[in-house]
From TrEMBL:
Source organism: Paenibacillus methanolicus
Coiled-coil features, chain-numbered ranges: none
Keyword Secreted in annotation: no
Name this polypeptide is given: DNA-binding transcriptional ArsR family regulator
Classification via SUPFAM superfamilies: Winged helix' DNA-binding domain (SSF46785)
Start and end residues of each HTH arsR-type domain: 12-107
Spans traversing the lipid bilayer: none
UniProt-listed InterPro entries: ArsR-like_HTH (IPR011991), HTH_ArsR_DNA-bd_dom (IPR001845), HTH_MetalResp_TranReg (IPR051081), WH-like_DNA-bd_sf (IPR036388), WH_DNA-bd_sf (IPR036390)
Keyword set includes Transcription regulation: yes
UniProt xrefs under Gene3D superfamilies: Winged helix-like DNA-binding domain superfamily/Winged helix DNA-binding domain (1.10.10.10)
GO molecular function, a single term: DNA binding
Length: 115
């Protein structure tokens, strides 16, 4: 096993893990999971529409949407006086796939080195 390659990959996977952390944190909450699921069924929803479909208060939903937005899982678009939220997960999925691919390469290298 080539130590510099493993070290480089470990550095890369560490950076990727840091990039994925906001995604993991955002998806860890059941309320945010419910919001994501709602947005998979609708092109976009405003806060009032999400509140109608949730037991949570408007302020709680707004808080959860802020976290999802910070994790780049939803985007907001203002239409007249309302803000509509929609899924925007392509970048997050790319980060997660890159993290998994690098992790798999490290495992393969370590497995090959143990043989």
């Amino acid at each position: 096993m080539d130590a510099p390659n493993t070290t480089q990959l470990e550095t890369l996977v560490h950076r990727q893990l840091r990039e994925c952390s906001p995604i993991f944190l955002a998806l860890a909450d059941p309320i945010r999971q419910d919001i994501i699921m709602l947005l998979t069924k609708h092109d976009s929803l405003n806060v009032a529409q999400i509140v109608e479909r949730s037991p949570m208060s408007r302020s709680a939903i707004s808080h959860h949407l802020k976290i999802l937005k910070q994790a780049n899982l939803v985007q907001a678009a203002k239409v007249a006086t309302e803000i509509y939220y929609s899924l925007d997960i392509e970048e997050a999925v790319r980060h997660l796939k890159d993290f998994i691919a690098t992790t798999e390469r490290i495992i393969e290298m370590k497995t090959a080195g143990a043989e």
